[in-house]
Amino acid sequence: MKHLLTAAALCSCLAGLPAAAASQCDNFFGQRCLIDLSTGVHMSYFDLGRESGETLILLHTDTTSAVEWAWTANALLELDPTLHVYALDQRGAGSTDLPNTAACWITPNLCITQADLAADVLAFMDARGIAKATLVGHALGAGAARSVALSHPQRVVRLILSGTGAPRPAGTTEPRRTRFSPLDALGWKKMLEAKGVRWPERALHMRPLDIDPDAVANIIRHWDISAIAAPQVVEAIAAQTAGESLASWGVIDPTAVPQAPPENLASLSVPTLVLWGSEDAGLDRASQDRLIALLKQASVANPAMYFYWKQYGVRAAPASGDKHDADDIGHNLSWEAPRQLAADIESFVRTGAPTRDRYRTDAPADKRRILVEPGQATWVSSRP
Hints:
The protein is of the alpha/beta class. The protein is built from 13 helices and 11 strands.
């Protein structure tokens, strides 16, 4: 099992959250459950709520772990204690290692594809005897959830996605965005090369904590950035990131990620909720319009499918492109607006629709305060 900054670091920012309860791994700052999957993954996960309740499976984004759902999951179970919530550490994250194969060890990018992550979700459901579940995914986790819903819709009750969009059509261009580089901003390559460690081959299976004595603070400044989330939440997320093997970061392995066949999102056949933060620097409104168009096609083609798309925040991403300059809700809803995200998840599960409330920050007065404006939500739906 991987070394993680646990108990003391996480307990301070989860203090006061209700024990949701029912298993030996129902506290996000405590021990995880472990299970062997048919995909060769020894998976760790958290298990909260009632064994007999409706099942939700939460899937995190890259360079984090299931702990990113701590605040949302506990708020969700405050709203509906009858739910049964699993939060998975996907392969390479948390205490879930990559499969022990030569390919995964040498070329991890060939081992953490969207198809691999989706296969793990299905294998987890099989191992736990879960016939159907609601899948809730953030970014990388949203991709895995979509893949499961497209390939095995009979296993998915409904789909809830955040931090996701639709790619540009082939042959089109748009202004190039500057990509945040962990190699340059975090300085780990220089640190290791100064010690004679060959980059990236010898670094792939190291953790930031192995390289940088100030890894957590460095990650907070340059990677897990949020000007909206509570500082203790960002610190807890950064502590998890600092314990992740660089093999799971994707950008370290020089091996190109295999080109996957394009997803046919217009063939989605399960009810779907998409949530988007207006200051998501990586997913502009155009990406959302493309996704909405595909969801409309899906709702016409599949009578059982309907969708809601809902916006968080009201301001555009800062012109600087610097997440330190953000003043409204962006990519990481589970960090920045966890109680509001929980309210929308619970409402969609219970009623088939998210809340009608608009969520935004109280900027410029207090950008860490989330305002709830009843009935003012910006949304698009296939339903009247």
